[in-house]
Amino acid sequence: MKLMFAADIHGSLPATEQVLDIFSRSQAHWLIVLGDVLNHGPRNALPPGYAPAQVAERLNQVAGKIIAVRGNCDSEVDQMLLHFPLMAPWQQVLLDTRRLFLTHGHLYGPDNLPPLNPGDVLVSGHTHIPLAERRGEVIVFNPGSVSIPKGGFAASYGMLDDDVLTVYGLADGKVIADIAITP
After folding, report:
1. Where is the Calcineurin-like phosphoesterase domain (predicted)?
2. Which CATH architecture has domain 3-180?
């Protein structure tokens, strides 16, 4: 199963357009949206092309292919615009031998892990900083932010393909980080 991950869109229409174009070309089965979809939040500057209503319209066009979790900037008002569920604080994707625990990152994160089994993967956003590494017996993965990157990183997204999690630059497709999820 091929999965694409996008986090921290924060209402940026240009970033959304890029994500949807990559998703369409990638042949990924699901687009996993890791929260902070429409609102930029009080601690962030407005991202380029801030247009939350238009972002909702574009994402709604692929609503049946989206698995999403609620971020700290997402609200019930945002959910009213979206045709896919956004209000769950976490979701799980079950693979053959492990699970992906999906969350935004403000409740659970690399330094506050949920109960996981050896080999499981915590997938989160929130920090806007890409990450792909082992922490003890689990893997932590963050695709970075598609709209407001931090830590000197470029805007980025993630992909799971052939048991490898990879963070790619949104503009250039260059690999930023990767990790195999098989032992």
Report:
1. 1-161
2. 4-Layer Sandwich (3.60)
